[in-house]
Fold this sequence. Notes:
Distance between the termini: 73 Å
Structural class: alpha+beta
Number of strands: 15
Low-confidence stretches: none
Radius of gyration: 20 Å
Helix content: 25-40%
Order of helices and strands: EHEEHEEHHEEHEEHEHEEEEEHHH
Strand content: 25-35%
Bound molecules: fructose -6-phosphate, magnesium ion
Largest sheet: 9 strands, mixed
Mean pLDDT: 94
Number of helices: 10
Amino acid sequence: MSEITLSVIKADVGGFVxxxxxxxxxxxxxxxxxxxAKKDGLIVDYARGEVGDDISLIMTHxxxxxxxxxxxxxxxxxxxxxxxxxxxxxxxxxxxxxxDAFSGNLKGMGPGFAEMTFxxxxxxxxxxxxxxxTEPGAWNFPIYKMFADPFNTIGLVIDPSMHDGFxxxxxxxxxxxEIIFNLPxxxxxxxxxxxxxxxxxxxxIYRKSSDEPVAVTSTQRLFLMAGRYIGKDDPVMVVRCQxxxxxxxxxxxxxxxxxxxxxxxxxxxxGPLMPVGFEDDTPSRFDGPPRVVALGFQLTDxxxxxxxxxxxxxxxxxxxxxxxxxAADYFxxxxxxxxxxxxxxxxxxxxxxxxxxxxxxxxxxxx
Length: 367
Ligand code: F6R
Ligand code: MG
Ligand code: MG
């Protein structure tokens, strides 16, 4: 078996209408660029993913992670799509391209990416999750359940090849540090951190026996890069499945509960993360609620992507959707109050500094 790199690189380069969906002309432009890259031999294979106003380039290649050629290709593709977005008057055209020109790799430039290099197994089932109107920490809850919770993943209990558990790499997005936890031994330590998903995010999962990654998430936080509030990051996550890893059904199972995430309207509200089929990937009500699609692929041993299958299209997720809609009603009735609106700390990136400044002289010392 040979090594392959799977790169998922995403950006919002213009919405149709507002921040709800992508115009077909952008999809066409994206497909043309990807087909050319395959023809040129830069990539082995590709697929296009989409959720809400975000497009993902899903690519297999032999160049490794954070490769300049691959990242530059993605940048150029998003730039070309931005031109199309401008032509069609799309909303927020080029919004995630934060710098004027590409240099080196995409870190700090706006687009999000999740990449991993691994030895392909004879049959390699992979699920790629794409979310809109939320932040990278939204993956903490489901990925924890997939790889650490025996009530979700029975394989941790009864499959001898999973029984030792997994290693979790966690990034501190504000402190710019990272740490590895061994599960299940350090479960309680891990939970102290990842229970705060706005700051601590699970970046990689590794097998205990090797350094080979089995899952990866995108972890950029746009507002930290831009130095001002410009929305949530609409993250992606790639998970390898089966044969000593969580089964596809164990990987999908956490989404049967639409847990509350930060994002939604103006990136400033908590709401349920609703699993949806491809047909329903267009956040509309109050610009949401936040949603996630799941693209299933089989990777052949030559690195070709067979898929995608619409994994949340199945009716077994209907109850989760209904619960998400009911939770959306519940949260919305709080209007501008917490815990629907995000807590003060997160509001620092919106109007709070200006309003506080304006009212400063009117605040008197309280007895
Ligand atoms: C959330 C999001 C939208 C916008 C909202 C206001 O991530 O993208 O909810 O924040 O539609 O957008 P602007 O400020 O562009 O009018
Ligand atoms: Mg947008
Ligand atoms: Mg988006």
